[in-house]
């Protein structure tokens, strides 16, 4: 029994000693054996290499510089050039509201209670951009055209009280002025040179975000289309518009649409949206249309459109088209020519069908009215008409109505 016990103790002691020696050997293995955990981990080699490649501060600066240089392109260059000239615009308008009567709009009760109207101050916001170093700013008429108080904020954070030099409801353009000199401004490009598919950049103040850090919001897209003719809205005529999918939201109105050279090719003005958010259908007024408007607003503060034509027109329908032998329904028909009017002097007759004005096809009354609304006193319209089934050209001068 004693011999058996001694044998068991001896075997146990040997196992303990052997295990200790093995553990010691493993714990003090040479450095080259430390590579095995990464190898046995399977799939972690790339992870280990990434940690092993942590660069020094100098190397990180070098890599960052390379990345920054690589990220700089025409768009970032254009944004850097134009951003200082973009401004946020806050306005106070005085709007008249009609109080709803409990009797509805019944004229019987209105004769006793009258038209109950009241005036209320309404705050609004939008975007704009400096076009000269002495403080002239372009924006939309629907942003500042009816404002009683206009505050302009520059990217420097400095705020100015702006004066309304002039505004034009028809083209939706307003010209503001702030007192300053050597101010940053953005060059005006050539909207006739716009290419469908080229990159464009919209800058502005969507939802008043400019107020947070005095910087414009930048969105990028392409020119989706040109020459777009939209329906008139509140008396404003939107013709030959530039369509873009660059995000334009509420508050972007009046901001610039730039090409990749940093030139303004349009003034962001209209969005199509069911919820006042961007769905990729934004429209800008082409800058070539704006240039002449700005020049006249700067000179006289308004656009002279107190003219008359002496023409009465109506749409051409299928019956009229068939009667006059037209191949298709097109144009408008002259239903009356006023005596001693510009139209009479131009040679118009009742029954003439106007099919083209200034090279633009006339499909209905709205298209002709839009062209006339945009014209000015003294302009001459080149009009193609059909008379006795023959085409002819007439020139209609838009004259100021004699008082």
Indicate the CATH architecture of the largest domain: Beta Barrel
Low-confidence stretches: 21-57, 63-68
Largest sheet: 6 strands, antiparallel, barrel
The average pLDDT score comes to: 80
Residue share in helix: 25-40%
CATH topology of the largest domain: Thrombin, subunit H
Q: Work out the strand percent.
A: 25-35%
CATH level 1 name of the largest domain: Mainly Beta
Whole-number total of structural domains: 2
Your description of this structure?
The protein is built from twelve helices and 20 strands. It has two domains: 60-303, Thrombin, subunit H, CATH 2.40.10.120; 307-400, Pdz3 Domain, CATH 2.30.42. The model is unreliable at 21-57 and 63-68 (pLDDT under 50). Strand 5 and strand 6 (173-177) form a beta hairpin. The termini are far apart. The chain is α+β, with helices and mostly antiparallel strands and 403 residues long.
List keywords for this structure.
403 residues, alpha+beta, Thrombin, subunit H, Pdz3 Domain, 2 domains, 6-stranded antiparallel beta barrel, 6-stranded antiparallel barrel, 12 helices, globular
């Amino acid at each position: 029994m004693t011999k058996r016990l001694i044998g068991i103790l001896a075997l146990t002691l040997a196992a303990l000693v052997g295990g200790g020696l093995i553990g010691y050997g493993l714990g003090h293995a040479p450095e080259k054996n430390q590579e095995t955990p990464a190898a046995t981990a399977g799939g972690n080699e790339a992870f280990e290499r990434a940690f092993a490649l942590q660069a020094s501060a100098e190397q990180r600066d070098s890599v960052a510089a390379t990345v920054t240089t690589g990220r700089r392109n025409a768009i970032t260059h254009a944004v850097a050039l134009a951003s200082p000239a973009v401004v946020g615009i806050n306005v106070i308008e005085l709007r008249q509201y009609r109080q709803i009567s409990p009797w509805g709009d019944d004229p019987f009760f209105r004769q006793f209670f009258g038209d109950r109207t009241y005036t209320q101050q309404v705050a609004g916001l939008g975007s704009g951009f400096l076009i000269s170093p002495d403080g002239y700013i372009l924006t939309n008429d629907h942003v500042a055209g009816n404002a009683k108080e206009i505050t302009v904020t520059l990217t420097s954070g400095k705020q100015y009280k702006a004066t309304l030099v002039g505004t034009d409801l028809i083209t939706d353009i307003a010209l503001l002025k702030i007192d300053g000199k050597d101010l940053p401004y953005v060059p005006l490009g050539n909207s006739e040179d716009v290419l469908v598919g080229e990159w464009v950049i919209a800058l502005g103040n969507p939802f008043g975000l400019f107020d947070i850090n005095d910087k414009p919001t930048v969105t990028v897209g392409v020119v989706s289309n040109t020459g777009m003719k939209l329906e008139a809205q509140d008396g404003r005529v939107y013709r030959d518009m530039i369509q873009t999918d660059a995000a334009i939201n509420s508050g972007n109105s009046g901001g610039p649409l730039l090409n990749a050279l940093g030139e303004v090719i349009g003034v962001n003005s209209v969005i199509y949206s069911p919820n006042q958010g961007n769905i990729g259908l934004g429209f800008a007024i082409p800058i070539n249309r704006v240039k002449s408007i700005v020049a006249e607003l700067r000179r006289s503060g308004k656009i002279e459109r107190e003219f008359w034509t002496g023409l009465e027109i109506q749409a051409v329908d299928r019956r009229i088209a068939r009667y006059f032998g037209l191949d298709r329904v097109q144009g408008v028909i002259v239903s009356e020519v006023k005596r001693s009017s510009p139209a009479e002097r131009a040679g118009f007759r009742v029954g003439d069908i106007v099919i083209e004005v200034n090279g633009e096809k006339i499909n209905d009354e709205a298209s002709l009215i839009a062209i006339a609304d945009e014209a000015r006193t003294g302009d001459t319209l080149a009009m193609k008409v059909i008379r006795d089934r023959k085409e002819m050209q007439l020139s209609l001068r838009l004259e100021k109505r004699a008082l």
